[in-house]
C-alpha cells in the first residue's frame, strides 16, 4: 500500500474530556501500521491532531505540510531510517520540532547515543508506555517561562 501522508485513522473522540492545554500537532512515522493506529488513537483521545506516515521518505514532506509540534519517528524503518530522517529534519527545520525516536531494538546504547547525535530530543524503546509519550508531549503544552 502506498504511503498515505494525509491519512488519519479514526476520528477524535467526541466524549474526550476537555484538556487544560492547547492541542498539539503530532506526526507519527513508523512502518508498523498497528503501532501507528494505536498511538494515533491514544493521541487523538488526548485532544491532539495527528498525521501518520509509514516510511522515512515521506516525513520531510509531511512536516512541511503539517507543521507539527512533535514527531515520533521509528528508528528502524526500511529505506530512509529514523537517523537519516532526524538529520534531514534538523538541517531543514532546526529545533522547531520536538523529535522523539522510537525503536524496537536496543544495541548496548549505541542507537541511543547516535539518536542524540543526529538530533533526537528523546529516545523510547518499544514497548514504551503511553504515559511516556504523553509526558513528553505535555512538556510542549506547558507555558514556557522566559
Descriptive keywords:
146 residues; alpha/beta; Rossmann fold; five-stranded parallel sheet; 5 helices; disordered N terminus
Describe the structure.
With 146 residues, this protein is of the alpha/beta class. It has a single domain (25-141), classed as Rossmann fold (3-Layer(aba) Sandwich). The protein contains 5 helices and 5 strands; from the N terminus they run βαβαβαβαβα. The protein has helices at residues 33-45, 59-66, 82-93, 110-118, 130-141; strands at 25-29, 49-53, 70-74, 98-103, 122-125. The protein has a 5-stranded parallel β-sheet with strand order 2-1-3-4-5, with helices on both faces. Strand 1 (25-29), helix 1 (33-45) and strand 2 (49-53) form a beta-alpha-beta unit. The longest helix has 13 residues, at 33-45. The chain is globular and about 35 Å long. The termini are far apart.
CATH homologous superfamily heading: Response regulator
- Roughly what is the average pLDDT, rounded to an integer? 81
Helix content: 25-40%
**Number of H/I helices:** 5
Order of the strands making up the biggest sheet:
2-1-3-4-5
Alpha-beta classification: alpha/beta
List SSEs in N-to-C order.
EHEHEHEHEH
> Which CATH architecture would you pick?
3-Layer(aba) Sandwich
Q: Which CATH class? A: Alpha Beta
Under CATH, the topology can be stated as: Rossmann fold
CA-based shape: globular
Number of domains: 1
Report the count of strand segments.
Answer: 5
The Cα radius of gyration reads 14 Å
Summarize the structure.
With 146 residues, this protein is of the alpha/beta class. It contains five helices and five strands, in the order E-H-E-H-E-H-E-H-E-H.
Amino acid at each position: 500500500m502506498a504511503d498515505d501522508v494525509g491519512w488519519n485513522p479514526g476520528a477524535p473522540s467526541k466524549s474526550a474530556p476537555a484538556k487544560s492545554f492547547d492541542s498539539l500537532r503530532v506526526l507519527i512515522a513508523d512502518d508498523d501500521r498497528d503501532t501507528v493506529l494505536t498511538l494515533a488513537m491514544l493521541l487523538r483521545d488526548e485532544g491532539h491532531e495527528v498525521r501518520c506516515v509509514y516510511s522515512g521518505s515521506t516525513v520531510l514532506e509531511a512536516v512541511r505540510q503539517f507543521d507539527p509540534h512533535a514527531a515520533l519517528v521509528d528508528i528502524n524503518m526500511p529505506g530512509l531510517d529514523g537517523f537519516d530522517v532526524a538529520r534531514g529534519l534538523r538541517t531543514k527545520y532546526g529545533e522547531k520540532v520536538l523529535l522523539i525516536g522510537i525503536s524496537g531494538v536496543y544495541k548496548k546504547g549505541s542507537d541511543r547515543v547516535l539518536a542524540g547525535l543526529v538530533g533526537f530530543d528523546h529516545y523510547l524503546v518499544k514497548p514504551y508506555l503511553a504515559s511516556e509519550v504523553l509526558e513528553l508531549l505535555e512538556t510542549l503544552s506547558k507555558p514556557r517561562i522566559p
